[in-house]
């Protein structure tokens, strides 16, 4: 078994990124919404069956667009998990909205759909779900709650590109879905993202918000003869260089997805016995979910000291990570958000979770070493 360092992540390049960037450069049209952006939009629309995809600078920007589209006003409440990245909450807080955190499910670590209804008040405007690790939330139940209470449904699908729930693409199920192409995700452009606008009635306003509050998109299509300021908006569109890079990744997306899934399944098989011995819990994938192998994690037994486990792995040059500090426990979370009910599962899972190295090109040899070292580390972490 080799003993070379195993990094947590290694951004994957398909080999055609620079070729496409050169094409954009030679064309000399570098602003947003050029031909590469158009191709990326079409690809996403075909993948998801959504009426409109719009590239953005990041998933963060796409979530901010969703908050603008919903016209979130100061005091409006948005129900979401605390076990998520800061942008899920920040996008709404920037508009004066108040995130209301509810607990997560123990199996998928996604928002517990059974807890949503009790958190609804007269100020609730939306539910924002997060598909952790690219594994879907219980969307049927959540959609039916949103319909019953006339709430908007936003999907933070930052990790969910190419994942399915009952055959439907994550990001295309709610009113709006946000993807990330940050270099730590499966398909990347350094920084990057997209907003999926899943109702045709919202497309026009989404285009306006993304183009500094103007109807420039309609102008470029020749639908109007001048463009003007229509609504509050900002500049959410990336330039063509980013879109050119992203297009190279989209071309190979199926291959990337397949390779990640292969490595994911290798971990899952290697860790089966440790799970049977009660040394680690593996991820749970509900039958209705097809996932994209965004990450592989284990949940350590409560009595194991995760700090000891992580530092032993690091000593052996195997780079594993924990994940979110729950937002309700952060300084800004305490100031700008509130919780509904206790968040015991969130706190327990967040303190016991460990993510393993997973990237295109990791070898099964590397993975065997990760698992063997983890096995020893867990012994060292026991009281
Ligand atoms: C990565 C991530 C984001 C942020 O994505 P950016 O493209 O970096 O803005 C938001 N939410 C979740 C759940 C993420 O994993």
Q: Could you give a short description of this structure?
A:
This protein is an alpha/beta fold. It has helices at residues 17-27, 35-48, 59-69, 86-93, 139-149, 203-210, 216-220, 240-251, 253-270, 272-276, 306-315, 331-336, 344-352, 364-381, and strands at residues 52-56, 77-81, 98-102, 124-130, 152-156, 164-165, 168-169, 176-180, 193-197, 289-290, 296-299, 338-339, 353-356. Strand 2 (77-81), helix 4 (86-93) and strand 3 form a beta-alpha-beta unit.
What does it look like?
By secondary structure, the chain is of the alpha/beta class. It folds into 2 domains: 17-251, Aspartate Aminotransferase, domain 2, CATH 3.40.640; 253-380, Aspartate Aminotransferase, domain 1, CATH 3.90.1150. It is 38% helix and 14% strand. It contains 14 helices and 13 strands. The chain has helices at residues 17-27, 35-48, 59-69, 86-93, 139-149, 203-210, 216-220, 240-251, 253-270, 272-276, 306-315, 331-336, 344-352, 364-381, and strands at 52-56, 77-81, 98-102, 124-130, 152-156, 164-165, 168-169, 176-180, 193-197, 289-290, 296-299, 338-339, 353-356. α5 links the parallel β4 (124-130) and β5. α11 (306-315) crosses α14. The longest helix is centred in the last third of the chain and has 18 residues, at 253-270. The chain is globular, with a radius of gyration of 21 Å. The two termini are 29 Å apart. The mean pLDDT is 97.
